[in-house]
Amino acid sequence: MRLKMFATISLWLPLLAGAGTNTWTAMGPAGANVTSMVFGRTAGTVFAAGGSGVYRSLDDGADWQAIKTDFPGNAPTGMAIDPSDATRLYVVAPTWPSLYVSTDGGATLQAATSLPTAVTQAGQVGVSQDGRTLYIASTGQIFSSTDRGATWAQRTAISSDPLAIPLSLVVDPTDANSVYISVQLTTAALQQVLATHDGGATWQVLSSDANGRAPDLAINPSNPMQLWAARYDGVSTSVDRGLHWTNVLPGIAMAAVGVDPENPAIVYAVSAPGVVYRSADNGAHWTAATGSISAGVPTCIAVDPAQSVRLLMGGYAGVAGSSDSGSTWSAQVGGMLSTTVIGLSADPTTDRIYASVNAQGLYSSTAGAAAFLPVNNAGLYALAYGGPDPADTTINISAMLAPPGGLLASLGNGLAISQDGGSNWTLSQIVPPGNGSEQLFDIVSFPAAPQTLLAAAYSSMYRSVDGGNLWSAISGLPANSSSGNLLVAPSGGQVAYSLMYTIGTGAILGIYRTADAGISWTAGTSIPAGLRLLLAVDPTSAATLYTATDTALFKSTDSGSTWLALAANPIFSGGPVQLVVDPLHPQILIAGRGAGIGRSVDGGTTWEALHPASPPGWSLSSLLLDPLRPESLLVATSYSGVQQITIAPDLSVTGVAPIGAIGAPLMFGFTVANLGPFAATGVTINVPLPAMTQIVTASAPGGTCITGTSSASCQFPILRAGASAAVTVTASGVPVGPVQVIASVAADQPDANTQNNSVTLTTAVAAVADLSVSVTGNATAQTGDPLMYNITVSNAGPNTAASPILTFQLAGGLTPGTSTTASGACSISSAALVSCALGDLAAGGSVKVSVTATAAATGSQVSTVLVGSAAVDPASANNIATVATSVTAPPAPTVTVVGKSGGGGGLSLWELLMFVLIIFFLGENSWAWRKQNSSHA
C-alpha cells in the first residue's frame, strides 16, 4: 500500500481545504500550520491561528487547545489583542462574516455580524492602544470602526489594485489614526508598504518595488517613529515613519520580524528557510539564534511582553519555543493535531500505518493506536541534504511505500530505503544515471512479490526486483508520456494498471495494463469520456477497477474494456478524487472529494454520508482502510492531520418465547434492528437450540438461513440504519422440560453497543391445553322461580387437559339446586359454589355441565364460571365467563266479590276487610260452639 504525491503534475493536485467510534477523531501527527501568533495580556496566554483554526495556550505555548476550527470555508489569516482589555481577541478570516470576537479571554469566538458584507478576503486586523479603533484590511480595501466594532465605515482604498493582498498591518501605539500596511499587488508584481495618518482617509506609498515583498511589519513600542519590515530581500528599518529605509540584513529572504517590548534594541528576524536571527543593537549586528528549531517553514514570531527572553515561532509544522532568547528551541505542539498530511501507507505484517506530513517527514501508528509518532526523520534529513542543515529543516517526500517490514521514501536526490520501518535509512539512486534527478511521485509493489516495485516519475517509469536498490527504465509505453498514477491488483499476481497522458498537453492516452509485473504493457480498448483519475482495483478481482471523471464514478469488470457509470454520490457533486475498497467485503466502497466522504455497501448503487461535503474544516488528500481493521477509515487531510473514524453500527436483537407444547414445534420469533448511525453488512443472527432437538427450520424474509441439527443461523447482506428484519426459528422434537435459547447478532463491522447484541428466551416444553368455558341460563325470573344454567367446557389443545376443574359460583340471590355433568362429578358447597372434577379432557373435546337453582332475591344476579387444569393454557382470557339473571318480585294477587247489588261490582277495600273479619269471627264462634256441644255430649 502506497502514498501518491501529485505535486509535480498539476493534473493530479489534490483538492485543498482542514479514532472514534462513529465519530471523527484527530490522530495527528502533532503540529499545525500556524500563520499568526500573539501573546495575550494575561500571563501565560498565547493564541495561534492558521490553516486549522484558532488555538489557545494557558501555559506559554507548552500545551494548546483548539477554540474554533469551524471557520466556514476558509482559515483565519490575522489576529489582534485589545491592548486595553485582556479579555478581547479579534480574529479575521477571508470569507464573511470575516471578523470573530472573543470577550472571554479567547475561551470562545463569536462572529461579528456587524461587519459590512462588502468585506471580502479579509486578511489583517489591527487595534489601537485604547481598544476603541479597529482596522480590517481586505483585498484592496480597508474598513475601520471607532466603537470597538459596533459600527463600521469603508475608508479610502489602500490601492488602485482591487486584488491587492494585505500581508501585515500595525497600528501606531500612540496614534490611532496612523496605520502601516504591506500589500502584494497583482500589477507588475509590485510589493508595497503604505501608511495612513488620518484613519484611512488618505494613503502614502512608503516603498514600492518588485523584490521587496514584506510579509511582516513591526513597530518600536517605545519609539513609534521606527518601523521594521521583514522583506524578501532582507530586514529593513526606518526611523522616520517609513519615509526612508535601510536594509540592515540584506540578501536573505525574511518571513517575520519581532521587537523585544522591554528592550526595543533587541530585534528578531526569521528567514524563509527557518533561521532565526537576533540583533541586540538595533540591527547593526546579527547572530543566528536558531538552535534546534523545529517549526518547519516559518511564518511568524512573537516575543512574550511579560518575559522577553521567551520566544515563540510559528510555521508550517507548528510552534517552536525558546525560553533563552533563541539559544535553544523545542517543539511546542502539544494538543495541536493539525498538520497537513499528503499520503498514507500501511504494512499489515507489522501492523503499522505510515503518514507523510508536508515538509516534515514520516510518522507511524502501530497496532491501531490513535496517535502518530515520528520515524527517524533526522536520518531522512541527512540523506536529503548530506547531513543536518540548519538553514532548511524541511524535507520533501514525493512518494512513500510500506512494503512488508520496510519503508520507502522518494527524496529529491534518490530513494530512501529502510528495512526496519524507518529507524535506519540508506539511499538508492534511480537508474539509468541520466534520469537520476527525476523524483518519483508514485511507488507500488506486488503483494505476491513485494520486492518487485514499479515507480513513476514525471517522464519515465521504472522497475526494481530487489526492493528498490537497483532500477531499470520500463519500455513499451507511449513516447512523450507520463503516468498519472499506478495501481496494483491485490489479487492479480503480476497485474497492474497505469493511467497514461501526454506530457505538455495533459491529453489522456488511456489505461495501460501489465500482466507480468511491468515488463510489458497493453493499452485498454476504451475509457470513459473525461477520464481524469484511476482510483482503485477490486481486492478480489484483478479485472475490476474504478475510475472517475469530473462528474461521475465508473466501474469496469473486464479490465477496462467496458465501463458502467455508478449512481451519483449525493454526498458531493462530481466524481471522487479518492476511493478505497474494503479488502474483506469488496461490495463496500468509500469515496471522497474535498471534505465529502460517502460510503456505499452495495457496490456504488446507494451512498451514505461519513462526512459532509461542505463543512468548515478539513479537506482530504488520501483515504486508507486499515488492512487489519477494515472498519477503520483513515483520512489524510490538509491542516487537520490524520482523521479517523471506526464504522460500528449499533445492532440489537429482541425476541418472543413460544409456549412449548408436548409434541408441537417450538416457534421462536426474533427481530434484528440496526439502530445506526451507519449501514451494517453481513448481519448474522445465531440461534443455538437444545441438544435433543430433532428438526430445525428457519425463515428470514430478505435474508438467507442455514440450519443444523440443533442450531439456526440467518444472514442479511445489508441492514441499513433504522431498518429491522424478522427471523423465525422453529424447532421440533424438543424434549419435555425447561428450554433456554440465547440468540446473538453480529455483523462484518464491530458493534457500537454490545449490550443489546443478545437476547435470552426461556420457556418450558409441557402439556398445553387451551381450555375455554361458556355458560347460558335464564335471563329473567321472578322470586321463587326455578333456574337452569348450561355450561360447556372445551379444549382446543394441542394436548389433553389433565383433570380440569370447573367452578361455578352462584350469585348471592340464588339458592343452589342440583348439578349434573356428562363427565366426572360435581358438588355444591354451602356457599353456593358448584365444583366439578371433569376428568381428562382430550384435545378437541368438550363436556357439558348443568346446574339448577331457585331465584331467591330480586336484582341482577351475576354468576361466574371458571375452568383450569394442570396444563399450560396459552389463552387464559377464555377460561372465565359470567351469566346474569334479572330477578323480580311476582305481582300482587287480585280478589273478585260475587253478588254485589248493581249487577256484580267489586267490593271496596274497606268492605273486603270487614267481610274477612266477619268470616273470621263467625268461624271462631262456630269452632267454640262445636267444642262446647261436644263436651256436653
How does this structure look, described?
There is one protein chain. The protein is mostly beta strands and 937 residues long. The protein has four domains: 302 residues, YVTN repeat-like/Quinoprotein amine dehydrogenase (Methylamine Dehydrogenase, Chain H); 223 residues, YVTN repeat-like/Quinoprotein amine dehydrogenase (Methylamine Dehydrogenase, Chain H); 116 residues, Immunoglobulin-like (Sandwich); 120 residues, Immunoglobulin-like (Sandwich). It is built from two helices and 80 strands. A six-stranded mixed beta sheet has the order 62-70-69-64-67-66, with no helix packed on it. It has a six-stranded mixed beta sheet with strand order 72-80-79-74-77-76, with no helix packed on it. A hairpin with a 7-residue loop joins strand 23 and strand 24. The longest helix has 28 residues. The N terminus and C terminus are likely disordered.
CATH class of the largest domain: Mainly Beta
Residue ranges: pLDDT <50 for 5 or more in a row? 1-18, 900-907, 918-937
Strand content: over 45%
- Indicate how many domains the architecture comprises: 4
- How many individual β-strands? 80
What is the name of the CATH superfamily of the largest domain? YVTN repeat-like/Quinoprotein amine dehydrogenase
Total helices: the number is 2
Cross-sheet strand order for the largest sheet:
62-70-69-64-67-66
How many angstroms separate the termini? 148 Å
Please tell me how large the radius of gyration is. Answer: 47 Å
Q: Find the structural class using helix and strand composition.
A: mainly beta
CATH architectural designation of the largest domain? 7 Propeller
In the CATH hierarchy, the third-tier topology of the largest domain is known as Methylamine Dehydrogenase, Chain H
Helix coverage percent of residues? Answer: under 10%
* Mean pLDDT, all residues: 89
